[in-house]
UniProtKB/TrEMBL annotation:
Gene3D superfamilies: 3.30.70.270
EC number: 2.7.7.65
Alphabetical list of InterPro entries matching this protein: Diguanylate_Cyclase, GGDEF_dom, Nucleotide_cyclase, Rev_trsase/Diguanyl_cyclase
Transmembrane segments annotated in the record for this chain: 25-47, 59-81, 93-113, 119-140, 147-164, 170-188
The protein's name in its UniProt record: diguanylate cyclase
GGDEF domain sequence ranges: 246-374
The species this protein was found in: Pseudomonas graminis
Listed cofactors: Mg(2+)
Any Pfam family hit: GGDEF
CDD domains per record: GGDEF (cd01949)
A single GO cellular-component term on record: plasma membrane
């Protein structure tokens, strides 16, 4: 169905696939983000341990540990659930909640460390928050809004606080960090657009490949598999049924007096007959069956796990459905069919089809518009 959707439907599908691709990339990159955030907090706490109030550091690390555990549970759950439920609608909001919580704790703790009044500590904390911002660019590159939110929650509180301090050095650090944040915001916009184009191009190329592969395997008029594709798939079904000793039947179908239709009513009428018979066959076969147009007005079906009596019923239903077709020309359309069953002896696919073809010849010789069993 994907290959035959309208342009708006294809666009909606590609847009949904791109969104899903972004989500998958986000979660794949998130383990680094989660562990990096926790490691940075531990390193900063270790550096500042002897210069700051230790109870405050422990509280900060405890809160960060809780938020880190929550994010790890989310990541593990995401990768353990089936792919069918890894949808943006289900996971983007959850990710946003854990990101805002973790970044908010990080930024609040960093601001608390800043207010200790130690210039060296302030410089170290600002460097770590800048490093966290750089990490956010790489980890949340598929989502510009998440990158900006993370930077705003981690870097801006410290930078704005420094901006209003009395010392020139503090104000200079604040201005530098804000300029850096501005450059990052601009870079994330370009990076986000580039990734969006890359995801879209990948999906469009995949779609084009599917169309080309489908066109190479499909008969244009009937929508059935062409001769080459039919035999390629039929060989696999034949071998499976033969090795498993399952019943298998081949059905050959030929349109009666098709040349007379073409000669008397034109090729447009003949093409209309072929299209409608193709539709009837597509509606009649199961997913496990193989059907195709072998050429001209000749069609073949391979009915997997189907005994001969059931195959005959299917053939008769096909014959009746074809007789009910309303065509561009006034004359009706009929078809003759031949059936043969796999005998599990020294036989191959072509031998089975040859038996069905012989049965088809008998059906035509006996007056057409009937089914013969080989």
């Amino acid at each position: 169905m994907y290959l035959h959707d309208s342009q708006p439907a294809r666009e909606d599908l590609i847009r949904a696939q791109v969104r899903n691709d972004r989500l998958q990339l986000l979660f794949r990159q998130s383990f680094f983000s989660v562990f990096g955030s926790a490691l940075a907090a531990v390193m900063l706490s270790w550096i500042c341990w002897e210069r700051l109030e230790q109870s405050m550091i422990l509280w900060w690390l405890g809160l960060l540990g809780a938020s880190t555990s929550l994010r790890l549970i989310m990541l593990v759950t995401y990768f353990r659930v089936p792919e069918s439920v890894r949808t943006p609608e289900r996971w983007e909001t959850t990710y946003w909640v854990t990101l805002v919580l973790s970044a908010g704790i990080w930024g609040s703790g960093a601001l608390a460390l800043m207010q200790a009044g130690d210039m060296l500590i302030q410089t170290l904390v600002l460097l770590f928050t800048v490093g966290m911002s750089v990490s956010a660019v790489s980890c949340y590159s598929a989502y510009r809004s998440m990158t900006l939110a993370s930077i705003a929650l981690v870097l801006l509180p410290c930078s704005i606080w420094l901006l209003f301090q009395p010392q020139t050095a503090q104000q200079g650090m604040a201005v530098a960090s804000l300029i850096f944040a501005g450059f990052v915001a601009s870079a994330t916009r370009k990076l986000g657009r580039a990734m969006e184009r890359a995801f879209r191009l990948s999906r469009e190329m995949e779609h084009a490949h599917r169309i080309a592969a489908h066109a190479a395997q499909t008969d244009e008029l009937t929508g059935l598999q062409n001769r080459r594709a039919f035999f390629h798939r039929a060989e696999g079904v034949y071998e499976t049924c033969k090795q498993a000793h399952l019943p298998l039947c081949a059905l050959m179908l030929d349109i009666d007096h098709f040349k007379r239709i073409n000669d008397g009513h034109g090729h447009q009428a003949g093409d209309d007959v072929l299209r409608q018979i193709g539709r009837v066959i597509r509606q009649s076969v199961r997913d496990a069956d193989v059907s195709g147009r072998l050429g001209g007005e000749e069609f073949a079906l391979l009915l997997a796990n189907t005994p001969i009596d059931v195959a005959r019923v299917i053939a008769e239903r096909l014959r009746s459905a074809i007789a009910d077709i309303t065509c561009l020309h006034d004359e009706g359309v009929t078809a003759s069919l031949g059936i043969a069953e796999l005998n599990h002896l020294d036989q191959d696919l072509h031998g089975l089809l040859a038996l069905a073809d012989k049965a088809l010849f008998r059906a035509k010789a006996s007056g057409r518009n009937q089914t013969a069993v080989g």
